[in-house]
Amino acid sequence: MSADSNHHLRALHRGAPVTQRPMLALGLRLASALLFSIVLLLVKLSGDHGLWFPETLVLRQVVPTVLLFGWLAARGQLHRLRTARPLAHARRGIIGAATMFLTLGVVLLLPLAEATVLGFTAPIFAVVLSVVLLHERVGPWRIGAVVLGLIGVVIMANPSHSHLPLFGLAVGIAAAFMVALISIQLRDLGRTEEPVTIVFYFSAISVPLLALALPFAPAGYDRVFHHDLIGWLMIGGIGGFGLFSQLLQTTALRYGRVSSVIVMDYAQFGWSLLWGWLVFGHLPPASTWLGAPAIIAAGAIIARREHLRANRTDVALSTVTN
Questions:
Q1: Does 69 reside within a domain?
Q2: CB-count exposure of residue 277 (10 Å: 0-12, 13-18, 19+)
Q3: Within a domain: residue 7?
């Protein structure tokens, strides 16, 4: 590692701000969305292949833990795993494990496109959380966006002629709520921690938590850790693509605001539509085509308003300090 890199890392651990690079952040988040769409595809295929979901999650987290530790050890850089914020990482690991269980589990209950769209309600929950927990004042634009997003969910759910199971809808909405919490955590950790450090501790902490489910495998299930080549390739793909998706997502939040980069996640809907059509021969019904744009528009409006608010804050601070 160069002297400049070491100086940069020391500055980070002293709490110095990271230089914002918005275009880089957008590109990284866009690439992360593509990789995560592949993870969702592989998770759905693994369920069809007979892999037990909790075991898939455990192995999915073992892969990045081993790969990151081995990579850092081979480069003589294990010191990069030092942290002064173990409790923050533990909190991220616990909440992240629950979030991953929901965000990946929903694709076993719903078609890929619908599962992906429900994830886009995360900005809506972020607004609600800001009001409930932070007591922020919310203007008409964000209130309107929340209402629009909720209308989109109702249209997509189509209660009178729903093609989606109620339990699957509930899991998808709960996953979006958890993602809203995780985005705030990642932004906070990214101020002082390297992406590789954040991803490593998330993976390492979540493995034993997820492994608690292994003794409760369904009766007659004797395939835990015993799979054919295709099964192991699926698990390896879920772990590998998931690792790089996390690294890109975490790095994006390091160089750009949550309110700005989250817009790139909407590209994942296009990929999910493509995989659903090519692999499963599924095209969403009219209710999804009507509800999805409303949800996406709501998230985009919220992201835009957050971006404008952040810019006004930066200008105000700059005026005061100058």
A1: yes
A2: middle
A3: no
